[in-house]
Amino acid sequence: FPVTIRKNDLFVRIKGDSTSLDGTPKKTENSINSWGKKVAGLLAGVFGTAQLIRFGNEAVNLAAKMQGIREAFEKIATPGLLDELRASVKGTADDMTLMQSAVRANNFKIPLSQLATFFEFAQKRAQQSGEAVDYLVESIIMGIGRKSPLILDNLGISAVELRNKFKGVGLESASVGEVAKAMGEIIASELDRRGNVSVTAQTKISQRR
User: Fold this and answer.
1) What's phi and psi for 105, nearest 5 deg?
2) Which residue among 6, 56, 115, 144 sits deepest, i.e. has the most Cβ atoms within 10 Å of its Cβ?
3) What pLDDT is recorded for position 23?
4) What pLDDT is recorded for position 3?
5) Inter-residue contact 97 to 132 (CB < 8 Å)
6) 3-state SS, residue 110
7) CB atoms inside a 10 Å sphere around CB 126
């Protein structure tokens, strides 16, 4: 059942198990009120009222931002795409980052069917380099979208190897789709060559974060 706790205009919705509450309506109401006051007091005691209010404001802003990103993502995503992206980064990036990156990739005309492979590569590079997964996911999207070897160099992609894919045509003259295809080939080769990367303590920390 949901319980709403009010603390200086901050509302906290909590779901709990009603099985341990008293059976009669009046006793149940008293139990809920008592429990709610204890939780509100605990939150205020641990974090401080000002921190709770700031957290509440940030949560509201984040929820509004998330709603817009989700709506944009759902317009372009195929069924199961978000699950594929979650699996590709092994839970080391949040849903908002994944959906936001997919929307940005779509704006650049990068095929969404390749994103899971790109993000898997970013996750493995992050594990090997110590960089944040979010940063490398952003780098691979921006690097392909802008056809920039300098940005893709953040992921350890050789500019020479990429340019060799476009001998006689020139990287700058290629379409974003062609660059994405070339990157897919390079990344597939890298993933095969390096094999699976074990789950490290850093990976677990990123998952929890």
Assistant:
1) -60, -45
2) 144
3) 53
4) 46
5) no
6) coil
7) 24
- Looking at residue 135, the DSSP 8-state letter turns out to be H
Distance CA 103, CA 98 (A): 9
Q: What percent of the chain has pLDDT over 90?
A: 36
Specify whether the CB–CB gap between 167 and 148 falls below 8 A: no
Q: Rounded distance, CA 7 to CA 53, Å?
A: 9
Report which of 70, 65, 92 is spatially closest to residue 82, judged by C-alpha positions.
Answer: 70
Q: What is the pLDDT of residues 110-158, one digit of tens each?
A: 999 999 999 999 988 888 888 888 899 999 999 999 999 889 888 888 8
Q: Is residue 205 scored above 80 in pLDDT?
A: no
- What does the longest C-alpha to C-alpha distance in the chain come to? 82
DSSP 61-104: HHHHHHHHHHHHHHHHPPTTHHHHHHHHTTT-S-HHHHHHHHHH
Supply the Cα-derived Rg of the chain in whole angstroms: 23
SS3 assignment, position 11: strand
Provide mean pLDDT across the span 163-168: 87
All residues at 6 or more sequence positions from 109 whose CB lies less than 8 Å from its CB, including other chains:
175, 176, 177
User: Helix, strand, or coil here: 184?
Assistant: helix
138 or 191, which is more confident: 138
Instruction: Output the CA torsion sign for 37, 40, 43, 47.
Output: negative
